[in-house]
Each structure stands twice: as structure tokens, then as C-alpha cells.
């Protein structure tokens, strides 16, 4: 049974599936990283507590073994001295320490196993964190590329190369219209000058005719 209960809503097992369905993968990955980081901190805290507890259990086992060995030596000395009563007392106390060794050795072994399991889980969490963090960098780069591409598309909207010919066609029509107006005004002024010249010639011819008529009249008056 795991000594550390996982509490994350998102795990590596379902992260890829949720990334495919997410419109904002970076935000989803950030949520995973936050939850994983919190879990790592909890695991490190629990590891510290387990480590201290395991050391205490080992200390109890070591102390019981030392006392058991000491009482056995005392029992031997008492036997050599012919003090069987003292030897029995020492052996009786040794038996208590031996029982303590057996009890605490079981607890120590169990705690040591749990500590190793927790260390493995902690290592797994840190590996997951680093792996997903690297994936976040990749998805962030992709999202940034997409964002910049969208901005470029918005900026270039309506300014494509395909509109350049239309722009020059409109400019050509505008310039041609201005040129036609200029030619029309020039032709009109020229026509006015021609008409004025024609009018002047007509008047001059009329004057010449009138002068000739007056001369003829004078000649007839002289002959009378």
C-alpha cells in the first residue's frame, strides 16, 4: 500500500488526453505543475518525518542490542563469580531487551521499506515535473508562434499582393480622367481661338466690302 496518497486532479496518465482536448494547453500544464509541486512538497515533508522516525526506531534497536549484550556479559561474570542469583537477574533483563530488539526490528524494517517506497515516489514525482515542464516550454513556444502568426494575419489582412494591381488600375483611371479633362480644356481654348480668328476675318472682309462700296459711291458722285 502506498504511503503517499496522490491528490492531483491531473496526472501524467490523463495529461496527454486532456491536452488534446484543451484550447489552452499551457494553462493546463501550469495547473499540473502547480499540483505536482504541491505534492512534491508534501512528499518531502512526509519523507523528512519518516526519515526521523526510522532513525529513532534504529536507535531503539541499537540500544536494546547493546544492553542485551551488556547484560549477557554481566550474567557470565556473575556465573564465574558463583553469583547465580545475579546471573539470573541479568539474564532476565537480557530477555526483555531481546524482546524489544525483536519488536523494534520489525517496526524498523517496516519503516525502512516505507521510507524507500516514499523515496521512489518522490523521485518519480520530480521526474514527472521535469518532463512536463519541458513539455510546457514546447507548448508555450507553439502557442507563442500561433499568437504571432494570428497578429501577422490580422495586420496583413487587406494588404495582400493581389490588391496591388487593383490599386494601380484605380490610379490609372484617375490619372486618365485628369488627362482627359486637361485635353478637353486645351481643345476648348484652341477652338475658341479659331472661332475668334474666323470672326476677325469675317469682320475684315465686311469692312473691305463696305470700303469698296463707299469708293464706288464716291466715283459715281464725281462723274455727275
Features:
single chain; 224 residues; mainly alpha; 4 helices; 0% strand; rod-shaped; PspA_VIPP1; Phage shock protein A; coiled coil
Write the layout of secondary structure elements.
Elements: H1 12-21, H2 25-80, H3 84-156, H4 164-223
Outline the structure in words.
This protein is mainly α and 224 residues long. Helices cover 89% and strands 0% of the residues. It is built from four helices and no strands. The chain has helices spanning 12-21, 25-80, 84-156, 164-223. Helix 1 (12-21) runs antiparallel to helix 2 and helix 2 (25-80) packs antiparallel against helix 3 (84-156). The longest helix has 73 residues, at 84-156. The radius of gyration is 57 Å and the shape is rod-shaped. It starts with 11 loop residues before the first helix and ends with a helix. The model has no long low-confidence stretch (mean pLDDT 80). Residues 101-135 form a coiled coil. It comes from Paenibacillus antibioticophila. Pfam families: PspA_IM30 (PF04012).
Number of helices: 4
Number of strands: 0
User: Structural class, please?
Assistant: mainly alpha
pLDDT below 50 for ≥5 consecutive residues: which ranges? none
Binned, the helix content reads over 70%
Rounded mean pLDDT is 80
Protein name: Phage shock protein A
InterPro entries: PspA_VIPP1
Coiled coil: 101-135
Keywords: Coiled coil
